[in-house]
């Protein structure tokens, strides 16, 4: 089993797509210089976050310009790239999608955000991702360097069943490109990550864009890595920055052995199941 050095890049995103793509590529290079072998980018790293922006920024995967740039950067730096998210176009349909590239530059997984964030609070805020986006219908895992990684996007982390299903499929790391806001960030961001890590006894990483005061959507930032014990191993502030940290998969086995909730769950009485084929 090879060891994993994970880089989590909290990139400052704004409205110039080309510049933002080249920024992502430069972080991939920086991660390689620090000997990382997997890097994760934030949610919506090539476009502003907002339903009105998605149609303009959306691309076909894997032939769009962002896909090509990530593929080339993965290959050139011989590193796994978990490509945050970009708005994906398939015909007339749009998705919020995470692409995963292996060190040969091949697309090995693609996750479409499964739970769209729709809220409508009277006289306050209305935000409906489903106005422009369609939801994904599949769980997404891939194998890398002895680990099995499950992917979720932002709001997906609030649905504990999804994390449980990933654990049941053998995942030992969950990665969520995400962008919480200035209300839910301070309250729930760290709590949700520690909860999913603790419930399922695996590593959890959430990667946010850096905070940009001028943006339409102000992200909390605070990119974080949490251990299978539920301990916060590394955490950023709101500024552009990157976590680079070694992950020891033995800790996953250790926790699962010492707190054997998965064998002692009363599956004869209740269960969490995937319903779609
Ligand atoms: C962030 O989202 C929450 C949950 O929907 C909402 O209640 C809150 O008003 C939002 N906060 C900001 C600053 O937009
Ligand atoms: C991360 C990054 O490169 N962000 C840039 C995106 O484009 C805007 C507009 O050109 C720049 O101001 C940001 O620095």
Morphology call:
globular
Tell me the structural class.
alpha/beta
CATH superfamily: Carbon-nitrogen hydrolase
User: In the CATH scheme, what's the topology name?
Assistant: Nitrilase/N-carbamoyl-D-aminoacid amidohydrolase
Rounded average pLDDT: 95
Number of domains: 1
Oligomer: single chain
How many β-strands, per DSSP?
A: 15
Helix content: 25-40%
User: What is the CA-CA span between the terminal residues?
Assistant: 32 Å
Order of helices and strands: EHEHHEEEEEEEEHEHEEEEHH
According to CATH, what is the class? Alpha Beta
Major β-sheet annotation: 7 strands, mixed
Strand content: 25-35%
GO molecular function, one term: omega-amidase activity
Family: Belongs to the carbon-nitrogen hydrolase superfamily. NIT1/NIT2 family.
Domain CN hydrolase: 4-249
Catalytic activity: 2-oxosuccinamate + H2O = oxaloacetate + NH4(+); 2-oxoglutaramate + H2O = 2-oxoglutarate + NH4(+)
Can you offer a commentary on this structure?
This is omega-amidase. It comes from Ceratosolen solmsi marchali. InterPro entries: C-N_Hydrolase (IPR003010), C-N_Hydrolase_sf (IPR036526), Nit1/2_C-N_Hydrolase (IPR045254). Belongs to the carbon-nitrogen hydrolase superfamily. NIT1/NIT2 family. The chain is of the alpha/beta class. The protein has a single domain, classed as Carbon-nitrogen hydrolase (Nitrilase/N-carbamoyl-D-aminoacid amidohydrolase, 4-Layer Sandwich). The protein has seven helices and 15 strands. The strands form three sheets. Strands 1, 2, 3, 4, 5, 6 and 15 form a seven-stranded mixed β-sheet that branches. Helix 1 runs parallel beside helix 3. The longest helix has 17 residues. It is globular, with a radius of gyration of 18 Å. The relative contact order is 0.16. Bound molecules: 2-acetamido-2-deoxy-beta-D-glucopyranose (2 copies). The site of one 2-acetamido-2-deoxy-beta-D-glucopyranose (NAG) has 9 residues, from helix 1.
């Amino acid at each position: 089993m090879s060891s994993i050095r994970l880089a989590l890049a909290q990139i400052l995103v704004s409205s110039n797509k080309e510049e933002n793509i080249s920024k992502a590529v430069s972080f991939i290079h920086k991660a390689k210089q620090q000997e990382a072998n997997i890097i994760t980018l934030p949610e919506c790293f090539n476009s502003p976050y907002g339903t009105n922006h998605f149609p303009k920024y959306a691309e076909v995967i894997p032939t769009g310009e962002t896909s090509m740039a990530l593929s080339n950067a993965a290959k050139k730096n011989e590193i796994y790239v978990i490509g945050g998210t970009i708005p994906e176009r398939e015909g007339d349909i749009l998705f919020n999608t995470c692409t995963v590239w292996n060190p040969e530059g091949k697309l090995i997984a693609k996750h479409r955000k499964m739970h769209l964030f729709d809220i409508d609070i009277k006289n306050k805020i209305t935000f409906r991702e489903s106005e422009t986006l369609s939801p994904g219908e599949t769980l997404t895992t891939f194998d890398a360097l002895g680990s099995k990684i499950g992917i979720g996007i932002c709001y997906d982390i609030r649905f504990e069943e999804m994390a449980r299903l990933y654990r049941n499929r053998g995942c030992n790391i969950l990665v969520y490109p995400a962008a919480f806001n200035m209300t839910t960030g301070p309250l729930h961001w760290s709590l949700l990550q520690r909860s999913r890590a603790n419930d399922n006894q695996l590593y959890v990483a959430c990667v946010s864009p850096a905070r940009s005061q001028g943006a339409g959507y102000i992200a909390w930032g605070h990119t974080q890595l949490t251990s299978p014990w539920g301990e916060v191993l590394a955490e950023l502030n709101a500024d552009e920055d990157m976590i680079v940290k070694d992950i020891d998969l033995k800790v996953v086995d250790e926790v699962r052995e010492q707190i054997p909730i998965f064998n002692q769950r009363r599956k004869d009485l209740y269960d969490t199941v995937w319903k779609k084929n």
